[in-house]
Specification:
This protein is α/β, with parallel strands linked by helices. Helices cover 23% and strands 29% of the residues. Helix 6 links the parallel strand 11 and strand 12.
Length: 402
Amino acid sequence: MSHIIVIGAGQAGASLTAKLRAEGYDGDITLIGQESVLPYQRPPLSKAYLLGEMDAERLYLRPEQFYADQKINLRLGQTIDHIDRQSQIIRIGNDILKYDQLALTTGASPRRLPSAIGGDLPGVHVVRTLADVDQMAAEFSPGKHVLIVGGGYIGLEAAAVATKLGVKVTLIEMADRILQRVAAPETSDYFRALHAAHGVEILEGLGLQQLTGQHRVTGAILTDGTKHTFDFVIAGVGVAPEDTLAKSAGLDIGNGVKTNAFGQTSDPLIWAAGDCASFPWKGERIRLESVQNAIDQAELVARNMLGAGEEYYPQPWFWSDQYDVKLQIAGLNTGYDRVVRRRGDNQAASHWYFAGQTLLAVDAMNDPRAYMVGKRLIEAGKNPDPSIIADPTTDLKALLQK
């Protein structure tokens, strides 16, 4: 009987195995994860879960019984030692498992602060796994002072949660502005003002020189030479694709595990999906870090493992929750040369990214209509006149009829 092994029990791995069964695959399936808990959703970790508004069981993507019912062999808390492509086997300790096809859904790992500057000190945290958040939860006591390193979405979400829990927040960003890598200055300005209104101190163009403390972090020296006292530190400096296993197996690597448009790696029997995988898109090679991509790409790979032969055409969307603002993003803004701002009521706003007359992406803050319309326009390849978007009297929904 055919055996498909999936390495990585996160959103992509869980989606891939479920899709295999939904598509009628009746062979053996083994899903292997390093963490000892059932596959779970990550976005609520740094928000609802950390705030105490969601318990661990609600994080789980499926109940344990689902995997038993679907005859998906779950092997949790286990690490793969080696992939032998020639023999089509993997080694886990003394166990040897033979595969007919293999999928890598190993995700990404958080970048940590260098040990040379104190990154290994107790009290220095990252936000990626359930264990990471459980470890840092006790730090969030009213009156404490946290240093957040990194002004991307993870850092800003952590700042919002800390503030809600009564923690004083200082956030530093080495780049000229927060969100510089992922958003236009207009979106940076919006969120800088939002955090300032909640008392967060944001220091841009300023990095971390050294964390201080002997047995635990007690403070930091910043790149301008100033010394500060902090109770704990959160590093939100991005993630790196988890491609170590793929490298050791001799697979092609390029911004993660390189795949073709079908999700195949350089070995036709090995596939990859989710945060670990890069794929061709519009003449480039990209890697998307999002729940939506993990699900869509994993489900496509499942179909292709069964012979569908479908190419992956992502329709990217993302979101972030900060205080009472929901940011929804449709599309990818790479290559934009113009941003059109549109204001709504209260905190509602949207920023529309254009390359010439081509609509690339939309950032919508507390404006679900702008997000919905923008997403549908992008997916349909429609390009509204930027001046019409900027006109506050324009009925956005009417643009979908043109």
